């Protein structure tokens, strides 16, 4: 998110637009425009050199009408109260559109974690929980990893919480490592979830998926499993993926005329999603500029890297053949590009529907923690498919009934469900 754009104002504007479409009462709007609870706290950490350093932590609980708050903890230097507020509000809508019984939350610490030693990171994670433990928990608020935080950090946080409450409580946090309370299928969940929604969109548009081609931006967690899913579940081909090359400080598109082999590319990719371009070239791949992915002659575009990538400039390169844009990343499409999609009749699957597979599987993780009984990967993915398909169909039905675009329809479904829960609980 650019420094200039206040993310929370943007989130409130999006909400106001849909509140208008839904004709919500002013008092309901006021209750949903703001988080229910906000925490900002100091985390003093003893550094390795013996000095004490003070960090500031945040946790925002936007709305818990549908269940405990849910959302990641970011360790990022540009973290502010307003970015966390916006992300918490978006989580409320994401959980509601996926129809999982959770509210929206988000947390963070303004720090670049790569500047800390392993021991300092552990102290910071434990310190965050020491300040927040009374206000999180399996029935209150369940954090998860996000930008700059890892499964190992979730393991430390769970351990600290369990010590403080005096009992093993894996359900306090999700995204834990498998074997330490994590769920099978979480690695594939977001990318496969994207493909379940693409499959439903293709059925709706009467497209033959076995003849379809996709172009994907990114080659990290979401993009890799979206590529595998597109090929293995739909029988289609993937023309290219793209990545950020840290050495060259440039983005590249990696394409193959017969379609990429995601397993080969995975085998030459590092843990940050960077592909070894020399090895790719040797194997017959073409290396093109970073934005080449968006101009490919394909049926489906899957932005799965960063926000703001499909914008007023790049959208002009989209080929006439493109029928579907599936937003694997968060916020990849700017409002100008949205207008272009509407004019061109491109079917957009909005981010908070399209990439809800991650949070849905996090919910499955806490369900398994509560039961102390763990499902096979097949069971997790089949439950995920069911949830994603139902979510997609509910949004499509709303879009057709109200004659609105998919993004507005997704907001209408989500906000409508939260308002209904508030009514049922007697809050309105
Ligand atoms: P990741 O860090 O694993 O991968 C990011 C990929 O994007 C890498 O391959 C990187 O090289 C590439 N990239 C970075 N800058 C680029 C650029 N300028 N051009 C082209 N490629 C570039 O991240 P991820 O977990 O795959 O997440 C991707 C997006 O999906 C983010 O917007 C994230 O918020 C969103 N998302 C992720 C999940 C999840 O479960 N991982 C869930 C919901 C949403």
Which features characterize this protein?
428 residues; binds nicotinamide-adenine-dinucleotide; 7-stranded mixed beta sheet; Rossmann fold; alpha/beta
- The overall number of domains is 2
- Radius of gyration over all CA atoms, rounded: 21 Å
Helix content: 40-55%
Question: Main beta sheet: strand number and arrangement?
Answer: 7 strands, mixed
Overview of this protein structure:
This protein is an alpha/beta fold and 428 residues long. It folds into 2 domains: 35-169, Leucine Dehydrogenase, chain A, domain 1 (Rossmann fold, 3-Layer(aba) Sandwich); 187-354, Rossmann fold (3-Layer(aba) Sandwich). Helices cover 44% and strands 18% of the residues. It is built from 14 helices and 12 strands. The chain has helices at 7-21, 26-33, 81-97, 118-132, 151-165, 186-204, 221-232, 262-267, 277-282, 335-344, 351-354, 357-371, 377-402, 406-424, and strands at residues 37-46, 52-63, 69-75, 103-109, 141-145, 213-217, 237-245, 250-255, 286-289, 300-303, 324-326, 347-349. The strands form 2 sheets. It has a 7-stranded mixed sheet, with helices on both faces. A 5-stranded mixed sheet has the order 1-2-4-3-5. A hairpin with a 4-residue loop joins β7 (237-245) and β8 (250-255). α1 (7-21) runs parallel beside α3 (81-97) and α4 (118-132) crosses α5. The longest helix has 26 residues, at 377-402. It is globular and about 55 Å long. It starts with 6 loop residues before the first helix and ends with a helix. The relative contact order is 0.13. The model has no long low-confidence stretch (mean pLDDT 95). The structure holds nicotinamide-adenine-dinucleotide. Nicotinamide-adenine-dinucleotide (NAD) is lined by residues 190, 217-223, 242-244, 251, 273-274, 290, 304-306, 328-330, 355, 358.
């Amino acid at each position: 998110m650019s420094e200039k754009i206040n993310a929370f104002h943007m989130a409130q504007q999006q909400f106001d637009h849909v509140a208008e479409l839904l004709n919500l009462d002013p008092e309901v709007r006021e209750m949903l425009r703001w988080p229910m609870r906000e925490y900002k706290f100091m985390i003093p950490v003893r550094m390795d050199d013996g000095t004490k350093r003070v960090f500031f932590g945040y946790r925002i609980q936007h709305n818990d009408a549908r269940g405990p708050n849910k959302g990641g903890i970011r360790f990022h230097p540009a973290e502010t109260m307003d970015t966390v507020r916006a992300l918490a509000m978006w989580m409320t809508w994401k959980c509601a559109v996926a129809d999982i019984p959770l509210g929206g939350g988000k947390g963070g610490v303004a720090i670049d974690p790569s500047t800390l030693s392993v021991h300092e990171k552990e102290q910071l994670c434990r310190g965050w929980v020491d300040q927040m433990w009374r206000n999180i928990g399996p029935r209150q608020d369940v954090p998860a990893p996000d930008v700059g935080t890892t499964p190992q950090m979730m393991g430390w946080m769970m351990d600290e919480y369990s010590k403080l409450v005096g009992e093993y409580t894996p359900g306090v946090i999700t995204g834990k490592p498998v074997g330490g309370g994590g769920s099978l299928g979480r690695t594939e969940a977001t990318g496969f979830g994207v493909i379940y929604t693409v499959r439903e969109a293709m059925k709706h548009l009467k497209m033959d998926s076995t003849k379809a081609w996709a172009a994907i931006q990114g080659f990290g967690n979401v993009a890799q499993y979206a590529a595998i899913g597109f090929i293995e579940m739909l029988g289609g081909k993937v023309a290219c993926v793209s990545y950020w090359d840290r050495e060259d400080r440039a983005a590249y598109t990696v394409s193959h005329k017969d379609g990429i082999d995601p397993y080969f590319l995975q085998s030459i990719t590092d843990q940050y999603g960077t592909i070894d371009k020399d090895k790719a070239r040797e194997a017959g791949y073409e290396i093109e500029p970073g934005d080449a992915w968006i101009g490919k002659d394909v049926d489906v575009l899957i932005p799965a890297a960063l926000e703001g990538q499909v914008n007023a400039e790049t959208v002009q390169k989209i080929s006439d053949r493109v029928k579907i844009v599936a937003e694997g990343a968060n916020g990849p499409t700017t409002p100008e590009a949205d207008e272009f999609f509407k004019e061109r009749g491109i079917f957009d699957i909005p981010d908070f529907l399209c990439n809800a597979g991650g949070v849905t599987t996090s919910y499955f993780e806490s369900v398994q923690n509560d039961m102390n009984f763990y499902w096979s990967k097949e069971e997790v993915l089949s439950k995920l498919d069911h949830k994603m398909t139902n979510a997609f169909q509910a949004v499509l039905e709303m879009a057709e009934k109200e004659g609105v675009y998919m993004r507005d329809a997704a907001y209408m479904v989500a906000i409508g469900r939260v308002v209904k829960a508030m009514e049922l609980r007697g809050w309105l």
